[in-house]
């Protein structure tokens, strides 16, 4: 992947992260950017060349006060569009492993949010994901596929208000 292709992907990803954070805020969550989206372009370029799970840290930290207790979560916003043609969501194996590690480290759940508003937990992706075959698009790193039918709607996960319509 060229630097220009990476920059285009990060621009799309950043816009999607903003959309997800706004949708959480609309549902009463306090949502803020997290992970490498907070870093300079120079630092992101270093991170993508170093073998560290920091590259796949969640994009958003969110909290909400419920009647019984406050809840803190992390969101990894996935802006890919492969689901449109394949019926599957795809997640890089390294991103799944990093999400599982982040859940262990933080003690808080991580959710993958896909560009159509569907959500998937790392545990579900681990259980149902199958190894995908590289077809010349993306980074070329190993990834898993999971049928969309196993995902959950954004509203069911984070509360009602369908900002994904349209």
Question: Describe it for me?
Answer:
This protein is of the alpha+beta class and 166 residues long. The chain has one domain: Trna Endonuclease, Chain: A, domain 1. Helices cover 37% and strands 25% of the residues. The protein has six helices and nine strands. The chain has helices at 3-26, 41-47, 83-86, 93-106, 122-128, 154-158; strands at residues 30-33, 60-65, 70-78, 88-92, 110-114, 118-120, 130-131, 143-147, 152-153. Strands 1-2-3-5-6-9 form a six-stranded mixed beta sheet, with helices on both faces. Strands 4-8-7 form a three-stranded antiparallel beta sheet. Strand 5 and strand 6 (118-120) form a beta hairpin. The N and C termini lie far apart (32 Å). The relative contact order is 0.15. The model has no long low-confidence stretch (mean pLDDT 86).
CATH topology, by name, is Trna Endonuclease, Chain: A, domain 1
The profile of the biggest β sheet is: 6 strands, mixed
Shape: globular
Q: Give the rounded overall mean pLDDT.
A: 86
How many H/I helices? Answer: 6
The poorly predicted ranges are none
Tell me the name of the CATH class. Answer: Alpha Beta
- Report the C-alpha radius of gyration, rounded: 15 Å
What distance lies between the first and last C-alpha atoms, to the nearest angstrom? 32 Å
Q: Total domains, how many? A: 1
SSE order: HEHEEHEHEEHEEEH
What is the CATH architecture annotation? 3-Layer(aba) Sandwich
Strand order of the largest sheet: 1-2-3-5-6-9
Class by SSE composition: alpha+beta
